[in-house]
Structure formats: C-alpha cells, structure tokens
Amino acid sequence: MEMIEQANAEALQRLLAGDPVLIDVRPAGEVLADLGDRTILHAGPPIEWSRMCGPMRGAISGIAVFEGWAKDLDDAARLAAEGAFGFQPNHDFDAVGPMTGMTTASQPVMVVENRTTGNRAYCTINEGLGKVMRFGGNDAEVLDRLRWLRDVLGPAMGEALRQSDGIPLKPLIGRGLTMGDEMHQRNVACSGLLLRALAPDLARVMTDSSALAQALAFIAGNDQFFLNVAMATGKAITDPVRNIEGSTIVTAMSRNGTDFGIRVSGTGDEWYTAPVEMPEGLYFPGFGAEDANPDMGDSTIVETVGLGGFAMAAAPAVAGFVGAGAASDAALFTRSMGEITIGENPEWTIPALDYQGVPTGIDIRLVVESGIAPTINTGIAHKEPGRGQVGAGVVKAPLDCFDAALKGIADRLGIA
Amino acid sequence: MEMIEQANAEALQRLLAGDPVLIDVRPAGEVLADLGDRTILHAGPPIEWSRMCGPMRGAISGIAVFEGWAKDLDDAARLAAEGAFGFQPNHDFDAVGPMTGMTTASQPVMVVENRTTGNRAYCTINEGLGKVMRFGGNDAEVLDRLRWLRDVLGPAMGEALRQSDGIPLKPLIGRGLTMGDEMHQRNVACSGLLLRALAPDLARVMTDSSALAQALAFIAGNDQFFLNVAMATGKAITDPVRNIEGSTIVTAMSRNGTDFGIRVSGTGDEWYTAPVEMPEGLYFPGFGAEDANPDMGDSTIVETVGLGGFAMAAAPAVAGFVGAGAASDAALFTRSMGEITIGENPEWTIPALDYQGVPTGIDIRLVVESGIAPTINTGIAHKEPGRGQVGAGVVKAPLDCFDAALKGIADRLGIA
Q1: What is the complex's ipTM, to 2 decimals?
Q2: FRET label pair with B329: which of A307, A316, A385, B63, CA 20 to 30 Å apart?
Q3: Bridge-partner residues for B250, per DSSP?
Q4: Pick from B395, B366, B222: which is nearest to B303 by CA?
C-alpha cells in the first residue's frame, strides 16, 4: 500500500537522521520523568514478579538492597513478592538497560541527546563482565561496584561531559565499525575511542590522582563499557520513529528473560510478545547450555538500528565469540538482515563490504513474508539468581511477535 | 640447500619467539650506546649530506637547532654541509625512526625489550600528523612540540612505565589486527589500546591535572601514536635474527629518501641498496605527485615482521587510505606477501582470513625467484624541506636490493 510505503520512508528517514550525542551523566531520579518511589525499571516488555526468571529476580533483590528498600536479599525477595515495589519497563521512561536492565532512582544514567529531534535517552553505566547485576549478580562485590559508580565514576563522568561539548556518537560508532565492533557483543574499539574522548576532561575534573587512576583503569579494563552507550544511542534514535501512522518499521525489540517483545511505529507503544528463545552460543569454562537463562535485555535496541547481529560483517572476530560460525562467514549474517530491512545507513558502513551501509529499518512485513527472523548477538546469563554471565551467543527474535504485530497494524488500518 | 633451510628455520623461530614489551622512555643519550656528540641518527642506510633529499635535510637542520648545535636553520644547513655533525643510521644504534627518523641525544626514546632474548630497541615518540619533523618539518611549532615531548610527555611516560610491569606488545598488536590496524598506515586501534594501558599509570605520576589532560589529549588525538611503538617492536624482534650463517631471511628494510636498503641474516650488518622508488598513493587536498619525495623511513621494519602491507587483509579501511584499491581487495596483498615469506605468525592472526597468521620471514630467494617485491604502506613527505606530510601510499621494495643480497650471500657461502 502506498500509505505504508510513505510511512516507512518517513520512518527510515528519521532513523538515518538521528544525531546522538553523549552529553551528561545524572542520577536516574533527577532525569527520568515521573520515576516513582520504590519503582524498579527492568528490561523488556512489562512483567510481574511471579513470571520473572531467576537472574531478573536476583537483580531485583540486589537493587532493592542497594537502594535501601530491603535489609537483605531474602527480605527484598519477600517484599517483591508482596508487591512492595513497582515494576515497569525501561522503555516507558526513555531508558534502556542491558540484560536484567535494572534502573532505579539513585543509579547514575548516561544521557544521550538526539540533536536532530531534541529527545533524550538514558542508560546506566556498564559494570564490566562476569558477576554483575545485569546478569543477575547481587552480592556485596556487585553492590559495592554500583556504589562506586554512583558516588565516584558517575558524578565525574557527568562533570567531565558537561564541561565538554558532548561526545558525538554517530561518527564514533561509524569508526568503530571500521575497527571490528558490532556494538553488541564486541565494543572494544568504541570503548577505547570513548575513553580517548573522555580521558582529558576526566583528568581536568578529578583532582584526586588515585581516584582518577581508578576511574581510567575501570573504563580501560571493560571491553563492553561502550555497550550501554550504544544502547542509549539506539533508544535516542528510535524514539522519534514511534507513532508514524501506517508504518510497519520496528522501533524496539526487547526481552525480559521470559517474553520477547517488539514495538512497531504504526502501533505506537503497544508490545507484541512471544515466549523468548534460548541463545545458541559458546559457554565460559565450567558452564553449559543447562546453566543458561533464556534471552534477556533491552540491548536488542542496537539491532533495531542496524548494529549487533545486523553488522556482523564488520566484526568477523565476534562470529567466533558468539559461536556463529567461521569469521569469514560473518558477512552472511549482514546480507541476510538486508532481506528484512528497507535501507542502509550511509554513515555506518562496513569496509570489508566495500563500505556498504548497515541494514536499517526492520519491516515486519518483510520478516513475516521471508520467515527470516532478526539475528541478535547476546550475552548469556546463568538461570539462577546471583550467578552472572556464563557465555555469549546468537538468538533469533521469535517470529510470532512479528505475526502479531502485522495483525495489529492491519486491524488498526482496517485491512482484512 | 639443507644448510640454508636450517638457517632459515632458525631465523623464523627467532622471529616468532620475540616477546616485545614497552618498558621505559629515556633520553636517547642515556640509553643508546656510544652515541657521540653532535651525532644525528637518521632513517635508512648510511648517507652523506650531499646525497640527502629535501625533507631529510630539513629535519637535520631542525634537529640541530633543537639540540642547540646551530643558531638557526640556515646556520644548521651550513654546519651540516661543512661536516660539523656526524650522520649515522638509527639501525646501527639498536634504534629506528619513521620517515626522516631523527634521533639525537636529548630526545626521549621509547624502550622496547625483547624478553625472549633480552635485547632492547629504541624509537622516538610519534609527533602527530601534518607538519612534523619526521616529514621534514622544522619550524617553531615543530621544535616546540619536540621540547614538550622532551620535557613533559617523555619523562611522564617513562615514570609511568617504570611503575608498571611494562606493556606486553605482542598480544596488544595481535588484538589490533582484529581491529582493523596493520600497524603502518593505520594504528588507531593500537594507539587506543596503548592509551588504555598507559592512562591509569600516567594519572598516578602526573599530579598536575592540566599537564595530565594535555598529555592524554595529545596521545588521544594522534591515530598514529602507536606507529613508533610498532617500529621499536619490529627492531626488537629482528635484531636477534641477525648473523645466522647461511640464512636468506631479511632482518631489515629501510630507506633514507635516496636509497632503499635491506639487511639479510646471513650477511650480518651489510646493507644492500638500490635507488628508492616513488610511492603510488593518495594526496591530501592541495598536493599531488609532483610534490612527493621518494620513499623514506625505517618504518619498513614493520613489514619485515609481517605487519604493514603484509597485514593489509586485517585493515580493509587502509586500502582506500593508501590508494591500494577496493577495501575488499585488501586480502590480495596479504596473500601475495605469502608468496615471498616462509611462515605465518600464529599469534598475529587475521579474523577475516579465518585467523590465518600474518606472512612472516621474507626470504630473498623467494623474492628474486618470483619477482614479487615486498609491499610497503607508507606516508608521503613533501620533497622540499620544512613542508611535512602530503599523502599516503603503497610502494614496492626495489628488486635490485634482493638481487644484490642474494649475490652477497652466495659469495659468502662460496656458491657460484
């Protein structure tokens, strides 16, 4: 239909016009509008405590202790089951969070402004690898790190960024694509580029040499530091694409460890969900598929803007890391994603494909017609609370979400 | 001949066993053995003033002023012509230098130790791009930068490195190869990885916030910062490969802007030279081939250990930068260099080639038999003194050097 084509052209134009800039770090309670007391934002579509998976429950217990809402993890779990906390999706607060995606009032969030449209998106600071809250970790080491992010690194990053003109992320990500990153399971290049951009200003605002050295070492030691920046970038770019009447372009894909949900431009904030799938991947020594939790996190927002599994060709080294086959086959994933997208991003290009742009603008009609599901590169959490990351892999978005969304938009447009 | 095969196997083993670690930065006069007064070390094989090219003369005039050996550039040129300075190759002092390759007593040099063999190699700190001394620049801005390197950055880097265990370079370069660097004309990834490794220790030793911020910004702002580290790495790895009786493996390739020279293991420190060629490449806006100086610098030491043009497949983005054709053709260069080398480096691998190691161990017999000359990725200097960099390109090592070296080794072995 002509009207759908026009709506999708507008959606693609907005996706490509996004101009994300990292401008600040602030406590979530200061910048997330209407974040209520004892409210815990989580990854994925809405979910109640009784249906939450192990790592999500573990993270919720941990963050409740961190916020001082419970005296210990058991107390937190009891309170959660009793309904003492409000649970809401990050996506409803202009925010995103990796894996369990915990966002609460006192946590610092990075602020990414889309300078084309003026909207802002938020994401917490990446904690590092292994036993961390986003993978369900919740012990003293995990909470101490969150306190240091809240008390030291977050405020310092905020002050450094406010003294700068902000860090433009579109060219930084473009450069990362020429350096082997796909911005989901491989962020080593962009993490380094971000540190380069941030370090001089951090040095100016952190006068305690020892604290500064610790801050630099923390960022330098975390190859996934940029992931959360990439996620806020994705959210800042996709939010203005919502609510274009008739558009069949995906504006969000997200998972809470139980359900996979997508949002489509023409149907606004409606979630279309299906049971989440298990990643297929590689496990850290001592772990296997029997330990794995199903797919989880808001991080699929990067695939929604053409990165992650869609940009696999830029990151041949990630193909091995996530168990997706030979490095030389990485281009096949990107080509396949070209089948379900309506454009390419001329500012995010892949040298090995002679500067072809990343496939952008997932059209649910193309997904349903082709039966090709979006490919997602993901981390794998242990299924039990408190354990942390056990591997990394590739997972498919469930096709049922796309079928349901297509029916939803057909209903709205009055098409049989 | 069996004896040559055995000698070359030993040479390859030493090339692959090298374990380079960046351990210190010191004034050249403190660490280069027997560096005489008023001695200027330069890139390439030996050359007298009368045969030096424009940028080499420009750099010599500049460095003489910097060292206080002349009152201005004209005075320096007059003194140089009169024989007031000693000119010697970097290579004879365990050192290497990019382009003009100026090394003098008061300049800080980075110290790379080969922990397998204990030898050390030295290279100055990279000055950045554009109008810099390595490209023949010599005005006040160039000399001021050298003073800052001498007085601020060099001592700080040295103190930071001495407080650390050193920075192991073999894994760092291995990682850079998965991030689009070939370590000659593209060092953005390794420069970032080095900054990540160095920044926390720099923060500990530089208590002046403003000076620290300037140091971090200088390193962060120079995508070629790592080039000089890669060069010292190459020198530290190749020096122990010298003087294996009967070996036809290249231990150095180098150019002074007039002559191209190679050294071969079985003939020790003998240079085999031929007139240097013109790079073919791309020029910065406002410049063209008529401005270009012929090929120059010790930086070809990186090709000697399998990086640079030999590792082009790792760096598809560099192919366009140096005008070597389509990004997707980058692998052809690496495959071609496989024809003239006797091994691959299992610790320096290329994801896009399914982790094939970089071609290592240039055998002059294979070069002469195949007629395939080593491919070198290089910067291009303006032919006049004081102008600086005008482009980047690809150049071939002249085959005459290899013919002459093969005769040399045949004579030494008493083969007709």
Answers
A1: 0.93
A2: A307
A3: B264
A4: B395
Judged by DSSP in three states, A307 sits in coil
Cβ of A50 under 8 Å from any chain B Cβ?
no
Here the tokens at position A358 are 């990343």
**Tokens (6 digits) for A44:** 């994925």
Q: Measured between CB atoms, does B301 come within 8 Å of chain A?
A: no
- Eight-state DSSP code of residue A241: G
Query: Of A196, A316, A355, which is closest to B192 when you measure between CB atoms?
Result: A196
Beta strand B356-362 pairing with B259-264: unpaired
| Tokens standing for residue B296 | 């120059």
> Positive or negative, the Cα torsion across B11, B14, B16, B21?
negative
For residues B328 and B15, the model is more confident at B15
Q: How many CA atoms lie within 13 A of A392 on its CB side?
A: 19
Q: Return the sign of the alpha-carbon dihedral for residues B202, B169, B100, B219.
A: negative
Q: Please, are residues A340 and A397 in contact by the beta-carbon 8 Å criterion?
A: no
**Out of A175, A212, A328, closest to residue B352 by CB:** A328
Tokens 């102008």: give the residue: B387
Confidence of residue B321 (pLDDT cuts 50, 70, 90): confident
The two three-digit tokens of residue B254, written as one number: 């180098």
Structural domains present in chain B: 22-231 (3.90.1710.10), 242-413 (3.90.1700.10)
Q: Do B217 and A195 touch (CB under 8 A)?
A: no
Cα distance between residue A17 and residue A271, in whole Å: 25
- Chain A: residue whose CA lies nearest to B182: A179
CA distance B27 to B66: 14
Euclidean distance between CA atoms B114 and B17, whole angstroms: 9
Confidence of residue A74 (pLDDT cuts 50, 70, 90): very high
Query: What pTM did the predictor assign?
Result: 0.95
Of A264, A190, A261, which Cα lies nearest the Cα of A231? A190
Distance to chain B for A90, nearest Cα, Å: 31
The pair of structure tokens assigned to B384 is: 């006049």
**Cβ contacts (< 8 Å) between A180 and chain B: which residues?**
178-180, 189, 351
**B109 touches B26 (CB < 8 A):** yes
Does the pLDDT at position B416 exceed 80?
no
Q: What is the edge-to-edge ordering of all strands in the sheet holding B280-283?
A: B280-283, B389-396, B375-381
Backbone angles phi, psi at A320, to 5 degrees: -70, -40
Calpha distance B169→A61 (Å, rounded): 43
Distances in Å between the Cα of B253 and the Cα atoms of A303, B117, B135, B230, B305 are: 46, 21, 19, 15, 10
Is B216 in CB contact (< 8 Å) with chain A?
yes
- Is A188 in Cβ contact with B199 (below 8 Å)? no
Task: Give the residue from A192, A230, A191 showing the smallest Cα distance to A97.
Answer: A230
